[in-house]
Amino acid sequence: MVRGALDELARDTAPPQVHTVRVEDNGLLVAVSGADRAPLPWTEVTPYSWRRDGLPEALGRPKAGGDAVSGPALPHLARVGVDEHGAQIMVGLGGIRGALSVRGDLRVARDTVAALAHGLLELPWQNTVVVAVDPGADTLPGLHGLVRIRSLAEVRDRAPEAVFEAAEGLGLGLVRAPGGRGAVAGFLLVLRPPDADEARALAELASPRGGWTALVAGDVPGAHWRWYAEPEGTVDLGVLGLRVTVPAPQPTAADRI
């Protein structure tokens, strides 16, 4: 139902860029930019905040004949956690255009990146290449569509063909952001602080030329977004102006990055 409501935004000839979605009991509240008006049945709270009361009865994008077709309207949205009122929060990761660095408590930072991975690969909406770098056998288990590699060199030296070949068998591929904002080659998950060589490789891959978006548990020089994880499980989402609790067990001790 939530995705069906968000589909209404992507139908417009000039769809907005959706930064965050707050899923409330009686509707949705989204933070947007790049659009002049809110399409019905959405209403404008402010020029950058739109509300929809209630949710549609069916999912899918209507065709001219009135039937619904499947497919993600905003493919880079991912659930990250809940706010202080218990509302689900989704984040538009396509707006990063570079790297997200989650600093602070390392365990919570890892949980945050893992939550974003689950959100990107949420069935039945997944169609984005998600690559986990050296994830470990017990990390991110059971995620259909996750490509696992041993090091960033496998992406740097062989991307995008080899990685895309691995994802192609899963029915995944390059996804273009709404509104002609360019394509995202895929998402790189790094669940530990990168060393100096890895940081340089990430900077290259997450550049406009590289086209990848990096989601990193640890500090990344030049990261476009910086979040901060607290030991009790909350995460400050930086420029997005939100604080959430990620859906994971609470860490037993702080492990500062």
Q: If you had to describe this structure to a student in words, what would you say it looks like?
A:
The chain is of the alpha/beta class and 257 residues long. The chain has 2 domains: 2-74, no CATH class; 96-245, no CATH class. The chain has helices at 2-10, 106-120, 153-158, 161-168, 196-205; strands at residues 17-24, 27-33, 43-46, 49-53, 61-62, 68-69, 77-82, 88-92, 99-104, 130-133, 146-149, 175-176, 183-184, 186-190, 212-217, 225-229, 234-236, 243-245. The strands form 4 sheets. An 8-stranded mixed sheet has the order 11-10-14-15-9-16-17-18, with helices on both faces. Strands 3-4-2-1-8-7 form a 6-stranded antiparallel sheet. β14 (186-190), α5 and β15 form a beta-alpha-beta unit. The protein is globular, with a radius of gyration of 18 Å. The model is unreliable at 58-71, 170-181 and 249-257 (pLDDT under 50).
User: In which range does the helix fraction lie?
Assistant: 10-25%
Work out the count of structural domains. Answer: 2
| Mean pLDDT reading | 79
**What is the number of helical segments per DSSP (H or I, 4+ residues)?**
5
Secondary-structure element string: HEEEEEEEEEHEEHHEEEHEEEE
- Give the percentage of residues in beta strands: 25-35%
Low-confidence stretches: 58-71, 170-181, 249-257
